[in-house]
Design brief:
single chain, about 110 residues, alpha+beta, Aspartate Aminotransferase, domain 1, 6-stranded antiparallel beta sheet, 3 helices, globular, TfoX_N, TfoX N-terminal domain-containing protein
């Protein structure tokens, strides 16, 4: 599954000011790495969001969010957000903020 280049561009625009930001293609998706830790990504037209284990239940209660089980096993601390739910910049920024809050507390790799 190819990633949506429009979503990837929007993510890059929003995250562009972060130091130590990089991208990596994985499993047909494009992920954004911050200080060596996965932060967010584009999987098809959907957003991959790393919110952390403690925030996962709240994240799953948000519109368009579902368990991230790309490999057939749910990934703890990750959710996938339907592309329609992040079509507006404000919604995308809110999800990015959730992810930054978690990843910021992780040690750099």
């Amino acid at each position: 599954m190819a990633y949506d280049e429009g979503l990837a561009h929007r993510l890059g625009e929003s995250l562009g000011d972060l130091p130590d930001l990089s991208t990596k293609k994985m499993f047909g998706s494009l992920v954004f790495m911050w200080r060596g830790n996965m932060l967010v990504g584009a999987l098809g037209s959907d957003l991959i969001a790393r919110v952390g284990p403690e925030a996962q239940a709240d994240a799953l209660a948000q519109p368009g969010a579902r368990v991230f089980d790309f490999t057939g096993r749910p990934m703890n601390g990750w959710v996938v957000v339907d592309g329609e739910a992040v079509a507006e910049d404000e919604a995308l920024e809110e999800w990015i903020g959730r992810c930054r809050e978690f990843v910021e507390a992780l040690p750099p790799k």
